[in-house]
Design goal:
Layout (H helix, E strand, L loop, with lengths): L9 E3 L1 H11 L13 H10 L2 E2 L9 H9 L5 H10 L3 E5 L3 E5 L7 H9 L11 H14 L24 H11 L3 E7 L2 E6 H5 L10 H16 L4 H4 L7 H13 L4 E5 L7 E3 L15 E3 L10 H8 L20 E6 L2 E11 L4 E9 L5 H21 L1
Helix pairs in contact: 1-9, 6-7
């Protein structure tokens, strides 16, 4: 049986491609999710996940990512979403992240596999007795932090990221298995609760099938990226690419997706939903965004370079003499171009945001951009020190 010819891709300019991605990321409007505590859940639901990171040179990235899209965001809003409203939960995507609670069922098959698979290297010394101990404590006494467990006999670290407390390793393993969830964070101190009890389930959701999970990941990428590639839809999951390609091609045949190319994309294939391509006009207002290096726009480095002609380097773990942009450089977006990378540090004792290094990139210049960027840095400083 003859196969139908492959559809020629729709050609876009790189500017059009960038605008589509920025619109999908909700970085082209001042308050795309509105305001107040409810905006936090809306933002996480749209983006699909918001990465968590422990580095505290400036505001932690999960708060920073949300503040970038919600002008009146406060840390208490994320606490409310996680602990009170329970509309977001923590789990692993490509990294530890906040995820919409409505998506929990898509993570359940992975949790089941973790219960059946060998433990991660840093938790390999956890015993079944350790797992039973923490489970019994939470079931009997309620949610707890690792600080509430005082009878541990400390052990030597056998992995860089491992804890010396067996109970901490056991809690992390039970979290990985979905037995417990993080019900609250105070700073970076996690409170663990039995998953079902935290969510108040009479019975847990029905786990998604592998086919449903694949469609979920594609839909999440289309919503938050606008234009998707196999790499961007399968970020950190290369083994999923053959199945993802088959799903994409089936949607192309049904005219639910359109093949797209743009200046400089070369052989990297992209696809978009037809409605996404209806408008590539410039936004009404050219906004300034000081972005976290873990922002969804920045974290996929190859994609960032392809769309923006900017290669971000995260240099916190690079020797000082080899750094280009600085220890914790933040890319600065003005309109649809990245024009600078600024290495920042917060001095909380002095109540000041310190500029360690300022590097112009692309078309960025002091005369064209510095005053507007400084105004946004003032707003960022206020958020970090007074919110």
């Amino acid at each position: 049986m003859a196969t139908s010819p492959r559809r020629a891709p729709l050609a876009l300019t790189k500017t059009d491609a960038r605008r589509i991605w920025l619109r999908a990321q909700r970085l082209d409007a001042r308050a795309p999710f509105g305001g107040g505590a409810g905006a936090t859940h809306s933002a996480v639901e749209h983006l699909g996940y918001v990465q968590i990171d422990t580095i505290n040179v400036i505001e932690r990235c999960h708060h920073h990512i949300l503040w970038t899209r919600i002008p009146d965001y406060r840390r208490a809003h994320l606490h409310q979403a996680q602990t009170i409203d329970k509309t977001v939960f923590e789990y692993w995507t490509h990294a530890l992240a906040y995820v919409p609670s409505n998506d929990f069922r898509f993570f359940m098959p992975g949790m089941k596999r973790n219960r059946q698979a060998p433990r991660m290297p840093w938790n390999r010394t956890v015993t079944d007795e350790d797992l039973r101990k923490v489970h019994h404590l939470i079931r009997k006494d309620g949610a707890l932090t690792i600080r509430d467990i005082t009878d541990d006999v400390l052990v030597e670290k056998d992995w860089l990221w491992a804890s010396r407390k067996p109970s901490k390793r056991a809690l992390e393993e039970q979290f990985r298995r979905g037995v417990v969830t993080v019900s609250e964070r105070t700073g970076m101190v996690k409170t663990y609760e039995l998953t079902g009890r935290h969510f108040g389930w009479d019975k847990p959701p029905r786990p998604a099938t592998e086919r449903q999970i694949l469609a979920y990941k594609l839909d999440r990428a289309l919503r938050a990226q606008g234009l998707v590639s196999l790499d961007s839809a399968c970020y950190h999951e290369p083994r999923a690419k053959p199945a993802m390609r088959a799903l994409i091609e089936s949607r192309v045949r049904r005219k639910e997706l359109v093949p797209v190319t743009f200046d400089g994309a070369g052989k990297v294939e992209h696809w978009a939903e037809p409605h996404t391509l209806e408008s590539t006009a410039a936004p009404a207002e050219e906004l300034v965004r000081v972005l976290s290096p873990f922002d969804p726009l920045i974290i996929q480095r190859k994609r960032l370079a392809l769309f923006f002609d900017y290669r971000h380097i995260f240099e916190a773990y690079v020797p000082k003499e080899k750094r280009v942009f600085g220890y914790f450089a933040l890319p600065v977006l003005v309109g649809d171009e990245i024009v600078a990378a600024i290495d920042l540090k917060t001095d909380r004792e002095k109540g000041a945001l310190l500029i360690q290094q300022w590097t112009w990139v692309g078309n960025g210049t002091a005369s064209a951009h510095k005053a507007r960027i400084e105004a946004e840095l003032d707003r960022f400083e206020t958020f970090q020190l007074r919110s």
